[in-house]
Structure formats: structure tokens, C-alpha cells
Here is the input.
Amino acid sequence: SKRAQRESTELFQSRYVTQLTKGGQVPLVADGVVAEIRTNGLIVYVPAFGLRGPVRLRDAEGRIKIPRSTLSGNAADVNDFIDGCSDFAAHAARLEVRLPLNVPVFQLAGGPVLSFALFDRVRVSLRVLETSRRRPPVYLSLVSRASSTGPMRAYRSSLPSVDRPLPKKKLESEVPVVAALEVPATAAAAAAAAVASDKKLGGKSGGGCYEVLEKFSQMSLLETTCDVQNLL
Here is the structure.
């Protein structure tokens, strides 16, 4: 079932790209993301079409195939390759190719070494080669690096600045809140003062209110005892 689902998806993608390119007459360029680094190129994922495919930068004979479109940015130069490239090095997370000395390096950011890393954004050309197969595959060709997303936009915050005073209405609306917060503090201060006053009075009298109550209790006990003895 998974194989049938994959084949049906590939067939739909192939037919859809064929329709957009009008049988290969109109170039179709889309943005992609480098998903893997291979010994002969890249694996690029194109989210706009939901497909993932290889971008070969070196053929089976070992010849380096870097399109001239990486310098010009023109998709029409995707089949015109730069001669004299060397030092093709594919690592786990980066691929590097040294360009010839006659290449105008000012057209390529990063100097005479063309490098690609994981999750780099690139532009690829999509085309379908009509063959006798039922599901003609979609081929991806490197066009260039993805263009910049543009200057960063500045968003204005709705909050007032720290160095700017708050409006008078806002200050008035915040007064009850401050007052409500101050009430418990005032009550707590009054309670603390009362406790301190009780302690101070208790220290002067020698035992505080508890000692006074105890004396009254003893007096009542003595009076009751005396009354009982008189009755007998």
C-alpha cells in the first residue's frame, strides 16, 4: 500500500510539473532547501510541490557539473556548465567546489569556493523528461542560491516607551490598584505596632495581661474557700 501511494504521488507530481512547464517549453524555477549532502551532489526538498530529489553536481565519470546560472542567476544558463572546477569535497554537512581563476568572483558571495551546507536555501529548475516509463521522473537542476528574503521589517510596538511619561488617564486608572495594594500593608503595620505596644506594656507590668487574669482567678478561688469554711 505504501509503494502504491508513493507511485501515485510521483505520477501526480510528474503530470503537474509537465502541465506547468507546458511540456518543457516554459522553465519552472522554485525555492528549495538542502536536505542531504551526497558524494555527487545534493538532495533538495521543494516545499511548494512537496517533492524531494537529487541535484547532481558531478556525473558518473567524475566530471564536475556546476551550472553557470550559479553566477548569473538566470535559469536559461542551467545547462551551461563552468569549465575548470576542481577540489570537489563532499562532507557530512557541507559540500565545497573550487571554481577556476577566470571566474569573476565578485558575482559569487564567498569567494572562489562554492559551498553548500545543510538547510541552505537554493533555487532549482524542475523539468520532466518524457520517456517510455509510466511515471517519468521530475529532474532537479541547480540554478543558484535563493535570493534574500529582503530587508527586515520594523514593527512599531503599541506599548509606551520607558522614558516617556504615561498619559494622565492611565495614571488615574491605576490609582485604585495602588491604593488597594497599600491597604493590606497599612493594616499589617498597625497590627505590628499593636503587638509591639502589648509587649512593651507586658514588660513594664512584669507578666502582661495573662498574669493579671491569673491573679483574678486566684482571688475568686480564695473567696470561695473562705465562704465554705464559714458555713461549716
Q: What stands out?
A: The CA atoms of residues 75 and 189 lie 79 Å apart. Residues 2-145 form a domain with the OB fold (Dihydrolipoamide Acetyltransferase, E2P) fold (CATH 2.40.50.140). The radius of gyration is 43 Å. The first strand starts at residue 28 and ends at 38.
